[in-house]
Every structure is written in C-alpha cells, then in structure tokens.
Amino acid sequence: HERRSAGALCATLAGAVRADVNIDFGAGTLIVSPLPEASADLIDANYFGRRGRTNIRRTGDTAIVDVTMDGRNFFSCFDNVRWELALSSTPQISFDLDGGAADMDVDLSGLRLADLDANIGAADISIVLPETGTVRADIRGGAAETNIRIPEGVAARITNNSSLSSVDIDTDRFPKFDRVCESPDFDTADNRVI
C-alpha cells in the first residue's frame, strides 16, 4: 500500500520549559520518538491514513499539546492509520497517553520525562523509559500486551496492582519484596523509575 499523508505539523519550542503532552489515539499504529537534541521544534507530527488534530497552547512557560483523532468520518476505517510523533528533549514533559485498539511503539528514552500516565485498551505497546532523571509512571492496560523497557543504569520500584494479568519482571535486576520489585540501589540512584 502506498502511504498518503493526511497531514503534518511542526511546531517550534519557542522557549517552553515544560510541556504537557496528551495523546488520545483510537486505533492503528502510533510511533513516538525523541527529536534530535539540537532541534528547535517542540513536536514534529506526521499523520497517515487518518488525520490527527493537534492543538498547542501556552500557559506561562508550559506548552500544552493535545493530539486527538479528527472527529470527521469517525466510523471510517482505521486499517491504514499511522501516526509518527517526535517530541523535543528540551522541556520537562508530563505525558498522558490514552489508546484503543492499536499497535504502539513509544520511545521516551531521550526525553526529560517527569511522569507518564498511560491507559491502554486492546493494544500491543512497547514503552522505552528515559535514561536519566526520576520518572513516575502509571500504566494501565485492558486486553493489552505491554512491554516496558527500563534502560541499563536506571533503578526502578515496580508495583503490580493487577491480579488478572500475567507479569514477567527481571527479578535478578529488580528483586521482589512482597508485591514490589525494587532495584537494590533504588533509594540512592540518580536515575530511577517509580
């Protein structure tokens, strides 16, 4: 199939120190990655198959980015929907992701992420967490296969609150204590995920 772009957007960083990024993705394929470090852009978004609607506004030094599916022709086919979103590594980011029946590849490794809130439906999702800083992540899934990668050198405290899902955690790296898996150096680590 030939991919046709249903729209593209490139927005400059324009001095934003923080960014609240909210993505509401219904179905298809979603790819999120970091922009090159020297980029002056806040977001570079390319939409294929079905247009995304991007709304960017500012509150002081915070950019608020909302990315949603275009409401027109809502019941049209999702088969060829592919969004490719690249985000700036400059601002501190709060990332909120809502996804339906989708395949998602979310690489946050190069971002300055403060927190991640992901609510995933019937999806296959791969998330790579940041290599530096402290990140709070709350990831909830329905009929989802979720693969979360914590980069080497990043400590983690992992709590599984689901009794219905099958969870496979590297307990050599993150030993289990009751319902919590935690790096031995979690309390003193500079780079960590909760």
Head-to-tail CA distance between termini: 41 Å
Q: In DSSP terms, counting alpha (H) and pi (I) runs of 4 or more, how many helices?
A: 0
Write down the secondary-structure element order: EEEEEEEEEEEEEEE
Helix content: under 10%
Mean pLDDT: 86
**Strand fraction band?**
over 45%
Low-confidence spans: pLDDT under 50, at least 5 residues? Answer: none
Name the overall outline: globular
Largest sheet: 15 strands, mixed
How many β-strand stretches?
A: 15
Gyration radius over CA: 17 Å
* SS content category: mainly beta
Tags for this entry?
194 residues, mainly beta, 15-stranded mixed beta sheet, 15 strands, 0% helix, globular
Question: What is this structure's SSE topology?
Answer:
Elements: E1 5-12, E2 18-34, E3 41-48, E4 52-59, E5 62-69, E6 82-87, E7 92-107, E8 112-120, E9 124-128, E10 134-141, E11 145-149, E12 155-159, E13 176-177, E14 180-182, E15 192-193
Parallel strand pairs: 2-5, 2-6, 2-7, 7-8, 7-9, 8-10, 9-11, 10-15, 12-15
Antiparallel strand pairs: 1-3, 3-6, 4-5, 12-14, 13-14
